[in-house]
## 1
Amino acid sequence: MAFSPDRPRINPNIRPPRRTRTAYVFFIQENFPKVARKFETRNPQPVIRHLAQMWRDLRIDVATEFGILRSSYHRLFVSTTLKQLPHIVKARIKRDVTNLLYDAEAGCNQSGASGYPSQAIIQPTASAALVCQSQPCMKLATSAPSLYQSQSPEKEKQRYRQRQKNDHERYINMKQKFYNAYKMRPPKLFRRGSQCASHRSRKASVLFEMEAYDQLRLGHPEWNETQIDAEMAKKWNCLEPAQRSIYIRSALNNKVEFDRRLKEYRLLKSRRALDEHMKNGLKIVEERYKQSNATNAI
């Protein structure tokens, strides 16, 4: 069974990764050099901790959590204060989020005592401005990360999610490509260095796919490997019994040929083992004969 020479060969030394990269991995890869230069250290632990905090600030997005679409000041404020509040307080703030937003904007320009008064947060419509009057909020506003200055967290997060989706599609196509290359290749004639041993027998569906692959690839060059496999499976399931019997008969012949080669391989292997045993025995006899002659000469 000849293998099509027109099919592109794949380098067997290159394999797809074991898993796809997530959006967090893309975020770390893109921002690690910048933060490392800022810290001026070769120890990656503080850099990773800082990047993890920046990623958490991106994840706790006010636009998706509570529907507040405002500046990075409000994002940092909500992400740092609402983490430590009870669930009922969060529900009240979420229920009356519009009044909380406008009261917070009205009170951000004022000054007050430090700390976060919990009673003021429980009633956001009346005293949400008191929450924004605290000094820690002003410090957070002045120390906003550069990510928020470039673009909003929801856009930044969406960009990394898109890269994660593209990487997942690339991984699936690459994995399917290597699977098809392994499935479509001819049977191996060597096993562990032996000179006559077939690798495996072919199923009827595999024999059909070996013929249909080239036709589908030439007819639809824009299809990926997943679409080609789906179309081949559909055609195989729609084959008539007479046509399918042809491939089944070829598979049986291939199985008979496989068994014949395997028997020859085992027989040749046993003969080689016997020859090696005989050669080793003759060497041992010759060495003993030489030793006995040497002792007799002395």
## 2
Amino acid sequence: MMTRVVFLIIFLTQLTGCIIGNGTICGPQTPMAMCDKKAYQALYHPTPLRDEWMKNGVGTFDLNKDWLGCGGRSDGSYTDIRSIPSESNFDYTKRNHQLFENIQHCMLNKGYIYNGRCDTDVSRENPGCQARSKAAVHGEGL
């Protein structure tokens, strides 16, 4: 009798379509990022933008120093800008984008190469991606 109850519980659990993944119960309507550990880490703990730049012979300390010198934040991001009262979302986004571009130009001028993602229309327009694609076209070492 007990084995039938255990079998029934296991059978019914399988019918629900739920699995246990990444420490959560994942059902049919749960976003896969919550069930896939790698996707979860990328979503909730992304690589800091600072770490997407490289330069031969430069360690983390100097990279961080250059990042800060270019206007980045100590946590590797750049978005500490607060919106100005009565500033529109468009103007805020434009100002934030300009800061990001300035940091990229500064890092490029210091000899860094951007090694982040350049696979979307928006990211391809970033100075770091454009410099990388120009270097690839001209056969320069990356």
